[in-house]
Amino acid sequence: MGDQAYLDESLPFEERAKALVAEMTLEEKVFQTLHGAREIKRLGIKAYNYWNEALHGVARAGVATVFPQAIGLAAIFDEDFMEEVADVISTEGRAKFNAQQKYSDYDIYKGLTFWSPNVNIFRDPRWGRGHETYGEDPYLTSRLGVRFIAGIQGHDGKYLKAAACAKHFAVHSGPEGIRHSFNAVATKQDMYETYLPAFKACVKEANVEVVMGAYNRTNGEPCCGSETLLVDILRKTWGFTGHVTSDCWAIKDFHEFHMVTKTPVESVSLAMNNGCDLNCGNMFANLLQAVRDGMVKEETIDGAVTRLMTTRMKLGLFDREMPYRDIPYEVCDCAEHRAVNLTAAKRCLTLLKNQEGFLPLGKDKIKSIGVIGPNANSRAALVGNYEGTASEYVTVLEGIREAAGDDIRVFYSEGCHLYRDRISGLAQADDRLAEAKAVADASDVVVMCLGLDATIEGEEGDAGNEFGSGDKNSLNLPGKQQQLLETVAACGKPVILVLLSGSALAVTWADGEKNVPAIVQGWYPGAQGGRAIAQMIFGKFSPEGKLPVTFYRTSEELPEFTDYSMKNRTYRYMENEALYPFGYGLSYTKFECSAGIEAADVLTADSTVKVKAALTNAGAYDGAETVQVYVKAKDVPGAPNYQLKGLRKLRLAAGETKQTEITLDMRAFGLFTEEGEKLIFPGEYEIYVGICQPDARSIALTGSKPQVFTVKCGERAVVETV
């Protein structure tokens, strides 16, 4: 065992890791590059499985707090709260790890390397995995990704509480069915403006420990072996020092589907030589042959294994004392964490329509309520994918029964299948429609629970149905759901439409003035979601969620799914009016925002602009609102419509006013060129400050118009490089 320098806790982690790797044989090193790393008993190295998930709670390893899916957490528009949620996740992750180690359980999903967050841009609402992301905007995704990583990795200064992973690097957002062979073609400008900023923030601001490559090719190079992405950008330009993992079995795609190599040995050589350190899968076992054939140098493998061992040392796996080792199992699913989860579920709910203040319902004004729809009593519709196991699930039906109490009769009908034309296999189509009508007739008001779940929108292989590989073929409600909605509404009882989905749906009929008075986007709200939705409906709190994605009117207005150009995509570049815009969400109370700015007469590359906003809760409910700051370059051809560049969530009691200040540096005004430089251009820029986007649709829906301020840049100057 040599001088065992790797056990000297006074030495830097990287130095210790190098000393440890120096003690290994080539075969031992190679088998440390697989996600299920082998035990090396003679060196005191335990078996370790790098594959673990924590997208919205510790996943796939037993009971844990199951928070709202990532897209729902994004709808909260609150950086501070995102870190609080992630801190709960990493606390439970450590607690479970400590217990599993005690009982010698080194299986998959039992490590401290959590392959989250997913900071891909949700550029197309048809993408099945979009609900794993923080939405369509690179600024919002960056801010939330950075704070999620902070909560996962902790602030010890020496040790990581857990290791976070920014995935999937890069330019990855479907289609799922062809992801193993697909080549995503993106201009440098779109890469710099849209697809790379969140990853850059995760690396340079959050010091994320792990980056995962994507399945697809980007501009011809397979992402898990891309010299451009992994060498030139990630390590040389951004200075990333952590380790890179492949997505699972992605390296065999090199020769089986991408056809950029011919053999497994060529594939692993391409990946290892271009900086992929860890193989989720078993292909890297071929590195033994690659070294013998002279295709990979042993010192290249040394570097990869050193980075992997450095991560494990940062996690304290080789040290006698470290601050997170005593976190007890009892913190998992504790009352405090369940309370944070219920808070998250409440805060993510996004009120899209509330005609004439129909919501909240007064319990004293109704004697019966009907709950109808395939998602009304569905646990699957609460949790999304990459989920853990909750000790308690509260569906919408269960939440309404709990909130209604003994004085209100609650009726229920499934109404229809989520996507098939019947529920019972031997029945005729529409076999629950008559029951749904009966429930509506017997009820004073109806809550319709429609939408999707992760069995039909999700990852290729996990979700398979007529939608195809987890993606949506349209934005319409699937199956018989639209027919059910219209049939129930025709019964004459007011309908509250609750959508449980991880992506935008084109509910244009429901938005019509005379059809349903209220629409709630519930996302996949977590294990406590039904309780939160019921409490919102009955006015226990005011909704505060904002849309992290655009709701379009139809999929026909979208570019081809396989087109990765950002032209006519997302609020920043779209040409048509949205059904419900990014950043939009109603409240039960009324907020008024006034603002001002402090800025030089002429801005230069070193300038800053201070935005000062006063937010007043002028309504009758306590509530929370997000101050949103957008920037538009007026005089630059082809510039985005405007871009979110600042946000601040404020909580106010009824009648209260709070002040906030948001500072914009010149990167907020810059635009990337094809050469990869972010420039400010001479001319005028508009700054919009308010509680929504400055588009006409947002203003019409909210009745609130952001204030606009004009600033001037005097010279062309570089403010950032990729």
Polypeptide structure, described:
With 722 residues, the protein is α/β, with parallel strands linked by helices. The chain folds into three domains: 5-50 and 89-101 and 112-323, TIM Barrel, CATH 3.20.20.300; 349-565, Glycoside hydrolase family 3 C-terminal domain (Rossmann fold, 3-Layer(aba) Sandwich), CATH 3.40.50.1700; 591-721, Immunoglobulin-like (Sandwich). Helix content is 27%, strand content 18%. A hairpin with a 4-residue loop joins strand 20 (671-672) and strand 21 (677-680).
Q: What's a concise summary of this model?
A:
With 722 residues, the chain is an alpha/beta fold.
Brief descriptors of the model:
single chain; 722 residues; alpha/beta; TIM Barrel; Rossmann fold; Immunoglobulin-like; 3 domains
CATH topology of the largest domain: TIM Barrel
The total beta strand count reads 24
CATH superfamily annotation of the largest domain: Glycoside hydrolase, family 3, N-terminal domain
Q: What number of domains? A: 3
End-to-end separation:
44 Å
- How large is the radius of gyration? 26 Å
**Largest sheet geometry:** 6 strands, mixed
Question: Spatial order of the strands in the main sheet?
Answer: 9-14-13-12-10-11
> How many helical stretches?
21
Q: Which consecutive residue ranges, at least 5 long each, have pLDDT under 50?
A: none
CATH architecture of the largest domain: Alpha-Beta Barrel
Give the averaged pLDDT, no decimals: 96
CATH class of the largest domain: Alpha Beta
Task: Please bin the fraction of helical residues.
Answer: 25-40%
Q: Estimate the strand proportion.
A: 15-25%
